[in-house]
Amino acid sequence: MTQLIVYKSNEGILVCTDSSATMFDDNNAVPCCFRVQKLFQITPGILMATAGAGYGLAFCASFQKYIRGKGLWSYEDVAMVALPFLRSEFQRFRNECDERSAIPDVERVYFIIAGVQPGPQGHQYRFSVIASDSFQQPLHFVKVPHFVVIPRKLALEYRLNGLPRDTALYEVEKICRKYLVKLANESAEVAPPFDFVRISKDGIRKRTLR
Known about the structure:
Elements: E1 4-9, E2 12-17, E3 20-24, E4 31-35, E5 39-43, E6 46-52, H1 55-70, H2 75-96, H3 104-107, E7 109-117, E8 124-132, E9 140-142, E10 147-150, H4 154-161, H5 169-186, E11 194-200, E12 203-209
Antiparallel strand pairs: 1-2, 1-10, 2-11, 3-4, 5-6, 6-7, 7-8, 8-9, 11-12
Helix pairs in contact: 1-2
């Protein structure tokens, strides 16, 4: 499963992900790992990421096209239409599926919407998590603190939770980079290139570690 990390600080939002994806054969028995791009720039200041089930990539691409067609730019507007749009896509996908997967991790899907919202009080940084654990559970918003690690890694969560809120994003990135490299050395399910995106008052800036 994709490793996805999001951290919000006073200066912006950091989004980190690897590029590995897993596909199973027709019997759900033999996994095959390959690389995909999991980040989608929705607007100049809003990013969408997905983890879990592979159909999330198609949903993100459809949502990107939908938002650009509607001409929505603010985080509030994008976040407001995200859940109903994704639920509609999810329902259509379920109706088209002949049978459900026998592997729970293949059914589980997550979406992150992260962005900057300019305002009279200055720039506000926000992110939302939308998820479903199975085909039988509707997509819903998940309440999280100022960070989220997908799938959960308690050691990293503990480290991130202990950081002061004024910690510079580049310091957080160093922690996440070290952790992703460690995971990649331990499992084929996490693999480079690693993408690190900072969302700040200057917009979206991406850096890739190969």
